[in-house]
Design goal:
By secondary structure, the chain is mostly helical. Helix content is 91%, strand content 0%. The protein contains two helices and no strands.
């Protein structure tokens, strides 16, 4: 899914949630508290997911580097073992 599509979906969900809270039959102060709480949760969950995605990408990149390093070490060890005989 494209980033713009994800952003549009998230924005639509936030708008729908905000409209639902704003149209609720509560007092204005209660409605603002609920809206603030929901927006904070949305922001936190989105930030957490974005952070997790970045960490997973970094982990994959690091694992590729480690594989390259291990293969270089194995090549070096093979040359060392072959030269010693």
């Amino acid at each position: 899914m494209k980033k713009t599509t994800k952003a549009l979906i998230i924005a639509s969900m936030a708008t729908g949630a905000a409209m639902g809270v704003l149209l609720a039959p509560d007092k204005g102060s209660e409605t603002r508290k609920k809206l603030d709480k929901r927006l904070s949760r949305l922001k936190y969950s989105f930030t957490g997911k974005a952070r997790k995605e970045k960490l997973l990408k970094a982990k994959e990149k690091l694992e590729r580097y480690l594989q390259k390093i291990n293969s270089l070490i194995a090549e070096y060890d093979a040359k060392e073992t072959g030269q010693g005989q």
